[in-house]
Protein: Spore photoproduct lyase
Organism: Caminicella sporogenes DSM 14501
Amino acid sequence: MKKSKDNFVLPEFSHIYIEKDAKFYPNTNKILSKFKDKIQIEIDHYKDLFCRSRQNFRMQKISPKLILAVKRDNLVYEGAQVCEDFGNRYFYYTSSIMNCIYDCEYCYLQGMYPSANIVIFVNIEDIFREVEIMLKKHPVYLCISYDSDILALEGITSYVSYWLGFASKHKNLKIEIRTKSANFKAIKKEKPLDNVILAWTLSPDEIIKKYEIKTPSLKSRLNSIYEAIEKGWKVRICFDPLLYVDDWKIQYSKCIDMTFEYLHSERIYDVSIGVFRISKDYLKKMEREKPYSKILAYPFKCQNGICSYSKEHEDKLKKFVYEEISKYVLKEKIYI
């Protein structure tokens, strides 16, 4: 697309940056084959581009670039304290992709990363090897879609399919794949696995339209969930993060009713509830970049480096949503 007076922003992934060390990986060739008409630029290290100072995250989000890189260290991380472990002792997460194609106003990635460009690490096999070393010591509960929406990018990477193949060989590995996408069709031919949980984040349509920019509607997500359940997959529903917005009771009540009128509640694996919470440092950066955000204008309370709503508002949100969900789902299947 050429520049014009009305449209001067290049389309998404108009440029693809490739680390020298990433050039000859099979995944690099597979990904590049889907972007034959895009400008390709070779770089020494992805951080030379991704970690530059004085970047404008908001402008980059309009037209993000794609970076193909090699992940050299920190292949697997211990689970963060703000995340639910669902009773799993050995809780970890990994990032084979950094950043997301969606643009949620409350997303912590804009506080964590200096750039909105998307990084795909092409050496996913090295992550597999690291996990295999861990599995020799103990079982592993691994979340693979925290720092991106990996299912939304499946058409580019096939990484979900790779992870499913890996999980099928390791019964003491349990994987959660979290998404806001409606892209189950990308893996619908894959065989459902007992040690893989597909987890969908759901929000009221009003919140999706205002604050979860570029994400599919609630109905589209529910259609994808329905199809996954029909194919035999374990599905987790995540009402997380709950947002303290105007008419929140009405919005979440409608959302929950719609969810369980559409889905058979007894076929849901479990349900997760959590309010908006974020690192204090990430929040400061987000507030600077989004000074007019209604969500970020809330007078958050911070404790031990984590910021969230006041205890009164947090308790109200959780209690109401829990009671609404428990009309449909057994209480022992609801995590708060």
